[in-house]
UniProtKB/TrEMBL annotation:
Residues in Phosphoribulokinase/uridine kinase domain copies: 3-188
NCBIfam families the record matches: PRK05480.1 (NF004018), udk (TIGR00235)
One cellular-component annotation, GO: cytoplasm
Keyword Glycoprotein: no
Principal cellular location given in the protein's record: cytoplasm
Annotated source species: Aquimarina atlantica
Entry superkingdom: Bacteria
Protein name: Uridine kinase
Catalytic activity: uridine + ATP = UMP + ADP + H(+); cytidine + ATP = CMP + ADP + H(+)
Amino acid sequence: MLIIGIAGGTGCGKTTVVNQIVNELPENEVCVISQDSYYKDTSHLTYEERVKINFDHPQSIDFELLCQHLTALRKGETIAQPVYSFVEHNRTSETVSTAPSKVIIVEGILILTNPKIREMFDIKIYVQTDSDERLIRRLKRDIAERGRDMDEVLDRYQNTLKPMHQQFIDPTKEFADLIIPNNNYNNVAIDIVRTIIKERLN
Ligand SMILES: Nc1ncnc2c1ncn2[C@@H]1O[C@H](COP(=O)(O)OP(=O)(O)O)[C@@H](O)[C@H]1O
Ligand SMILES: O=c1ccn([C@@H]2O[C@H](COP(=O)(O)O)[C@@H](O)[C@H]2O)c(=O)[nH]1
């Protein structure tokens, strides 16, 4: 089994990179775990209280559950991956049954901040995109797909995203085996990662 961790600031293109990598690979050989599925369950809070959570701080993530799930997958067990709702800012009651596979890709802004999770990765990748480009992408995506408006995205960017990125996310670059520059679509880097995975699948 090969476990690949893909980190990088919000909007850097992690999800897009993962989709590009996975696209041409056999479906049953690769599974994807998103850190977003492991935001802590905050059902005991009201929506107004949940909106105020700092979702860019490592404490917002249930790393214990993520660690349990990765350990289970490594042992060949199927897990029930939680499904997160960005609109509700909360875990839903649904889960997705995720079976172990030869390659597991874990992606998320904070996955390299946790030493136990970091140790589980065979390859650590950091997707690097300039902050202005990330902000533009995040604005467009969150308005189109996550039910936000411009003021909300910009307030969150100034108050939490930027300081948390500087304090927690950007420093994890030093743990990466590979840094993928992603201001533009980087097909060469995608091909390299795909080649590494294909070698493992053969
Ligand atoms: N290299 C790129 N160039 C331009 N837009 C991109 C690029 N990569 C991703 N995007 C777009 O930027 C937005 C954020 O990308 P996404 O993959 O969701 O980032 P992340 O998962 O890191 O937050 C999406 O709307 C996506 O289509
Ligand atoms: O309820 C939530 C939980 C998280 N966020 C924001 O999402 C990003 C992480 O997702 P990416 O796909 O990597 O962008 C993080 O910056 C949180 O601020 C949210 O808005 N609401």
